[in-house]
């Protein structure tokens, strides 16, 4: 059975930050990854003028758009009709709604495979992971799956941080680290030599397609994948090389990250999530002896290098 999948794919959150890359990769995959690809979205997104270019380009390649309310069970049941594989790219605010989507998938007569929205930090990296606040909704989804799903098999694509987002310097969270091309300034955590595993956003799409192409190895698995491993200082060096100028580098002590992180959580400031994730990444929470890239048939040469992401950031296309 597994080798016949996927045939009829439904994507949630297709026009979101990472959903765009995943949907693009699925729609553009050669040879086709499935015979039919649909997205489920709200009427507001489907009619949003800013989303028309991407929706039209997908539709011209055969993608179907199903509109409905994510919280309406009948809308989901109708959307699942004939679907065998679901790829969820829902955003953080909608992660908990996946529990109902999974329940309805289990009840449906056709859905067999489900990719919950992960595409980020490893939420079961070590014993401390279970207490990290940003992980809680994804952990609840995994727990629901473990305890309730029998027919539907799930695949989690764990990519670590997106290099494109890491390369930006959020004005409201400078101590959390980042890179500002305009002012040639970087803020790095600790001494800047700590290794971090990254995935580029186009590579997230490539990795999801590879997982879809290899149900025999990816079904029921937590896939730990990434584009490359580098350090904050190596990123500075790449920016200096590509901009032909020396950058100013500020350091945020690791302890300072923890202090600001606690302050932000105590103040209920949503930026706290960024501090927690950056602290986890700086402490090595993205590193593996071996990733699952290879079992998906991907070699280091298939993945984007740091230089490609830095090039996009320097040219303003990041
Ligand atoms: N590794 C990293 O560095 C990193 C960074 C960011 C996110 N992530 C992960 O990637 C996944 C997707 O995040 P994202 O930032 O791409 O998501 P996003 O852009 O915030 O949202 C994705 C889509 O989810 C749907 N959605 C969002 N909020 C909703 C709500 N309240 N009700 C109904 N639908 C809602 C929308 O779908 P429509 O398009 O249909 O309207 C939206 O486009 C998450 O698991 C997140 O943790 C990882």
Model description:
The chain has 318 residues and is an alpha/beta fold. The chain has 2 domains: 2-154, Rossmann fold; 163-196 and 230-282, no CATH class. The protein is 37% helix and 15% strand. It is built from 13 helices and 13 strands. The chain has helices spanning 19-28, 43-46, 52-59, 73-80, 98-107, 136-148, 163-166, 201-213, 215-218, 232-243, 254-266, 272-282, 306-314; strands at 8-12, 36-41, 64-67, 85-88, 113-115, 153-154, 156-158, 178-180, 185-189, 196-198, 222-224, 228-230, 248-252. A 6-stranded parallel β-sheet has the order 3-2-1-4-5-6, sandwiched between helices. The longest helix has 13 residues, at 136-148. The chain starts with 7 loop residues before the first strand and ends with a helix. The mean pLDDT is 97. The site of NADP nicotinamide-adenine-dinucleotide phosphate has 25 residues, from loops. The site of NADP nicotinamide-adenine-dinucleotide phosphate (NAP) has 25 residues, from loops.
Which fold does the CATH topology of the largest domain refer to? Rossmann fold
Work out the radius of gyration.
Answer: 20 Å
Helical element count? 13
CATH homologous superfamily grouping of the largest domain: NAD(P)-binding Rossmann-like Domain
Question: How many structurally independent domains?
Answer: 2
Q: What summary fits the major beta sheet?
A: 6 strands, parallel
Order of helices and strands: EHEHHEHEHEHEEHEEEHHEEHEHHH
Provide the CATH architecture of the largest domain. Answer: 3-Layer(aba) Sandwich
Round the mean pLDDT to the nearest integer and report it.
Answer: 97
- Describe the global form: globular
**Head-to-tail CA distance between termini:** 40 Å
Low-pLDDT windows of residues: none
- CATH C-level class of the largest domain: Alpha Beta
Structural class label: alpha/beta
List cofactors, ions and other ligands.
Answer: NADP nicotinamide-adenine-dinucleotide phosphate
Helix content: 25-40%
Query: Looking across the biggest beta sheet, what order are the strands in?
Result: 3-2-1-4-5-6
What is the tally of beta strands?
Answer: 13
Protein name: NmrA-like domain-containing protein
Pfam family, one: NmrA
GO molecular function: oxidoreductase activity
Keywords: NADP, Oxidoreductase
